[in-house]
Amino acid sequence: MIIGVLALQGAFREHIHMIKKCDAGAVEIRLPAQLDNIDGLIIPGGESTTISKLMMEYDFLDRLKSFAVSGRPIFGTCAGAILLADKVGGKKQDLLNLIDIDVKRNAYGPQVYSREAEITVEFPEPEIFRAVFIRAPIIDSIGSHVIPLALYNNTYVMVRQDNILVSTFHPELTEDSRIHQYFLRMINHKQQITWKQNEFLRVQKI
Ligand code: GLN
Known about the structure:
Oligomer: single chain
Helix content: 10-25%
Number of helices: 6
CATH class: Alpha Beta
Bound molecules: glutamine
CATH superfamily: Class I glutamine amidotransferase (GATase) domain
């Protein structure tokens, strides 16, 4: 199994390290044609405006949309989550629109409010995970087909819609590979989830 990590800007090296740690193949993706040869893609954290400009310059948008339509999984972390979102700050983006969520950028405030926190992740059994938030966005709302997988401070910090997974934190910046392993199970089609399993998370949301 080969996982591509979009390597236009941001924390792509750390994701490559994590995937190798999970004993899967990892490759840096710098050109759209490389998407043909991978089984899943990670869009890393970084600066979403910079990555979006480079995505457009290198003609990634349509190729990434077809990649998602082909059923292959995509995992966006932090800026990657922003790039995959349908809406930012209540407005529809003119970008990938691959997951029905509305995100607010830099929602915890300036860099001094970046933090580490213990969150509970549905793997699908609930397990504690130490999450690193760096100038993270907040997921303000989710569509009816989006399944929450983790909550922090009463907002969703990891959600999934079919083959698209996003987290507002950086699982690649710890040595804990459970989130990457979850993504690899999505690629193997071994990690299907239903609303029922995650019902309690929805109930907790204000
Ligand atoms: N603040 C960044 C943005 O809005 C995201 C930060 C990150 O990826 N750690 O693009």
